[in-house]
Design a protein that fits this description.
The chain is an alpha/beta fold. Helix content is about 25%, strand content about 15%. The chain has two domains: about 425 residues, Alkaline Phosphatase, subunit A (3-Layer(aba) Sandwich), CATH 3.40.720.10; about 150 residues, no CATH class. It has a ten-stranded mixed beta sheet, sandwiched between helices. It has a four-stranded antiparallel beta sheet with strand order 17-20-21-22, covered by helices on one side. A two-stranded antiparallel sheet has the order 1-2. A hairpin with a 2-residue loop joins strand 20 and strand 21. The protein is globular and about 65 Å long.
Amino acid sequence: MASSWPSCWLLALSAALWGTTWAADGGQQQQPLTIGKRPNIVFIMSDDQDLHMDSLSYMPHLKKHLTDRGTTFSRHYCTNALCCPSRVSLWTGRAAHNTNVTDVNPPYGGYPKFISQGFNAAYLPLWLQEAGYNTYYIGKLFNAQRVDNYDSPHAAGWTGSDFLLDPHTYEYLNATFQRNHDPPISYEGQYSTDVVADKSYGFLDDALADRDSKPFFLGIAPVAPHCNVRHHEKVNGNWTENSATMSPPVPAKRHEHLFNDIIVPRTEHFNPDEPNSVSWISHLPKQNQTNIDFNDGFYRNRLRSLQPLDEMIEGVISRLEDAGVLDQTYIFYTTDNGYHIGQHRFQPGKQSAFEEDINIPLIVRGPGIAEGMVTDVVTTHTDLAPTLLKLAGAELRSDFDGAAIPLASSDILEAGMVRPEHINVEMWGIIMSEGKYGTVVYQNHTYKALRIIGEHYSFLYTVWCNNEHELYDLMMDPYEMKNLYAHEHSSAFEFRPASRHGGEHTDEDLTEEIFPSTSGSTAHTTNNNTTAAPSTLKHIISRLDSLLMVLKTCKGRECTHPWEVLHPEGNVRDLHDALDEEYDHFYETQQRRVHFTKCEKGYIIESEGEVGAKAWPVDEAGVRVGAAWNHPVERQ
């Protein structure tokens, strides 16, 4: 990468003062297009692509055309690390608890659930068409969009579409596509990603032919580097180990010889000697060498399967350039969720709240976007629909659970001061690993999690449906190996934190981390008042739990500004402010707690404990002081 935050800060400050955006190398950048000259948008989405196993480094065309010529959002997150729920959140701008699409198959997820929830009349392509765009899509839209239901009804909102259909969506050499309202066609023997590329070029030609009258949105979604899946039965709430065979992705013949010596990065949390986490993860066995060798081969095939996608990026860019519209086009590159192989003893798969599964690629190139820039502004998939609509000059919806992502460097600078610090992560149902080993269906893989990142703090806090808890401090424990929450004493809020020095994590360690010393002081100044730093972890976890209490059922602005729910006066903006000792009793004694009454396979709100957090201040009876108490709205 050509630049990091400090140098980009200075460049962005100059831009804010002089009205010019500069690249990381000092070259002047074109300003964003005005609404009167609306941009084209190309949106490329891989499937299950990792960020933390370094897969982007094996995509030279991506680096040349997007990473080096655009901005990388290093703290971009999905809010559900599973294909279909993540994609529905992306296209609707709503968290999974508000879409109620929480699985890849019925009854809790998939295309039929998307239809039944009414989203075929309320998602991005329709809004873009209302804004005057032609819209095209090629590849995987949603799971369980099948050869027997694709027209019940057809997916709305597309000027042109060519969807991959189940049960052959993930078969690299046996894909089925369905174009516009035509019958499905099998492409047996043809390499799926190459077929996606050819169809993408065709729709791009159509879009370019009409560009003088309408701008276009082109979505491209191959299945790489997802594993190869052969379904054996139609699934409707009864997924078993025999429902499908999930094997490594199949590379194209021309790429089979690549990366023979590459292995999964051997990070500290790769196949550790001791298990960690809670629930079923805490019982995973250490993998033997045969298992590891197979998984390394699985990883190599993932990298190989990405090569046709990388070649397609080159093809799209060259066609835009030849047509003279590259400088008028925003290009987004992302994936639906991350991936793990071997970390925490996991077999290949996703669905956890660990960083490998939720922190995912997002790279954007386009007018006014700095080249080679990396930003650590926190963003999520629920932000993408608002972002794309804003680029299109369309009005944003009040029911979005996300907010438009700042793209120009000057906007990124401003956003760094006000942008949300939190990511709401949620999961329901079962989990099964992919590959040859450990293909066991684990039940009760349901949890609510909070990933929060701010100045001098970085935590993952998770509450599972069996009411086990996890807390990881990623500043001292970046691989999330040491659970700070002693779940066997959770009712008493006692903790066994771990030290940065490998021993006991002291109060002084945590205090210094969150409130770094200034002239020998560990005090934190908040809202023009100087307050003492917290002395124990219980202060941290009580605030995180309350924030998660808001986020687990949030809607609209509650999702982007949850501290306003807890502190309506607006004097608490982040975790720093909330740790004022004035609020200790409120958070530790008076506030409701996140908990489950039952593990479910989908979003059943009655099984997820109390809803609605209390707002400061409250009296000893828990009643809001100085304002009428607003009862939480029931979620359907």
